[in-house]
Design brief:
five-stranded mixed beta sheet, 11 helices, 5 strands, about 10% strand
Length: about 425
């Protein structure tokens, strides 16, 4: 029996099958003895041989089941091995000889006693459980035909019941086994689905924790940059201006210089905190390198993603790099998940007063004015959609535009003004 079907229900069914076969064999012996048939001794001997062979096979099967239960769950099995088996091991030569021996002994009982035809019913289940379905059905038909033939030979008459009884029994056995087979497969599918859902829930929880951590890191980086770093940078510039305006030997000059150096040191510490809290893709290289790695990761057999830089690259503040990288990730995630595109291109353009990011694909496109933004607004980077992209652009004084039409692809463009004040450059 397949190790996966060792349940209380199948154990009860096996016991019922054992009891049914034992009871029917006992009925054959009792009828032969009570009626004083001339072949009583032969009937008793053949019946005992049949019972002994069946019991030997049942005990042998029980003794090897623990070895099968240790088989890995993902091991290759024949298609029919998922069906619950009864007392013999499927797919073995010993099992085939065992079932064949039972059938031969039963056929001998059919010749000796008409009551042996009732043993055909447990034989149906044995054949259906033990053999692959392409062999089990012909075996059931042969067994039913043998039972009908025995009845006709012994009774010397043809009655409808002689045909209806064995055929109905065979039909019930086939329907029972097929129904159990269907229920078993459905149970396995549900079990696998539950396992997959549990694994997916764990992955989702981990992804949410990671997204929350990254979002908090970015928020802290923005806060430190916009408050502490900017304030320290302004203090440093003011102290430098004050130091220049003081006479060289003024008593306050050393104190102003010390204050400026302290502000400069703390500004360096603040910048190191900001760098440590930036997205991992920006930790090891420039924005252009991070975008190039993003394109390489996204490129697949069905989608080619290219990256290009236009203009002369300049050093950008961390919030600018984060906004540009997150916008590229979100727009490219939309392309992968919704656009069904074959090609996409990311272009980072440095101009005199601004920096622009363009993400263009040749996908199916959509109607930006008619479709809700959330239909194209969920990316694979933790939920940064069109509203989040626009919010990022607005927080830095930039603008986000989306151009698309059904069947004409999509173009997402983010434009940010370059910082031009001395304080912003120093930050």
């Amino acid at each position: 029996m397949d190790s996966r079907s060792h349940t209380h229900v199948t154990a009860a069914l096996r016991l019922c099958l054992h009891a049914l076969l034992a009871g029917l064999l006992a009925l054959v012996v009792v009828r032969a003895v009570s009626e004083g048939a001339p072949d009583t001794a032969a009937v008793v001997v053949v019946t005992l041989l049949t019972a002994g062979l069946y019991a030997a096979g049942a005990m042998r099967s029980s003794s090897v089941q623990p070895k099968e239960s240790a088989q890995p769950k993902d091991s290759a099995e024949p298609k029919d091995s998922a069906r619950p088996r009864t007392s013999v091991q499927p797919g073995t030569r010993a099992g085939a000889w065992w079932l064949g021996g039972l059938w031969v002994l039963w056929a001998a009982l059919l010749v000796l006693s008409p009551d042996a035809l009732w043993v055909a019913f447990p034989l149906y289940f044995l054949q259906l459980h033990f053999l692959p379905m392409r062999w089990a059905l012909p075996a059931v038909v042969v067994t039913a035909a043998a039972a009908i033939t025995s009845f006709v030979v012994h009774r010397q008459e043809i009655e409808p019941g002689a045909f209806i009884g064995p055929l109905i029994g065979a039909a019930v056995a086939v329907a029972t086994v097929l129904g159990y087979d269907a229920l078993f497969r459905e149970s396995e599918r549900r079990r696998e689905l539950i396992v997959e859902l549990v694994a997916t829930r764990a992955d989702l929880a981990e992804a949410e924790r990671t997204a929350g951590t990254l979002a908090e890191r970015e928020r802290l980086a923005r806060e430190i940059h916009d408050t502490l770093a900017q304030g320290l940078s302004s203090i440093q510039l003011l102290l430098r201006a004050a130091e220049r305006s003081l006479p060289e030997n003024a008593p306050a000059t050393p104190h102003v210089r010390a204050a400026r150096e302290a502000a400069q040191a703390n500004l360096a510490e603040a910048r190191s905190f900001v760098r440590a809290l930036t997205p991992p893709d920006l930790e090891h290289g420039s924005l252009a390198a991070a975008l190039e790695r993003l394109c390489a990761r996204t490129t697949a057999p069905e989608l080619t993603v290219r990256f290009a830089v236009s203009g002369t690259p300049v050093e950008l503040p961390t919030p600018y790099e984060v906004a540009l990288l997150r916008t590229a990730q979100s727009a490219l995630a939309n392309t992968v998940r919704h656009a069904e595109a074959r090609r996409a291109e990311i272009t980072l353009s440095f101009m005199d007063t601004s920096v622009a990011l363009d993400v263009v694909d040749d996908g199916r496109g959509f109607d930006p004015s008619g479709a809700p933004v959330h239909e194209r607004g969920t990316g694979g980077d933790g939920g940064f959609g069109l509203p989040a992209m626009r919010a990022r652009a607005g927080s830095l004084g930039g603008a986000l535009s989306v151009e698309s039409a059904p069947g004409q692809g999509t173009a997402v463009a983010l434009t940010l003004p370059l910082p031009d004040t001395e304080a912003e450059r120093a930050a």
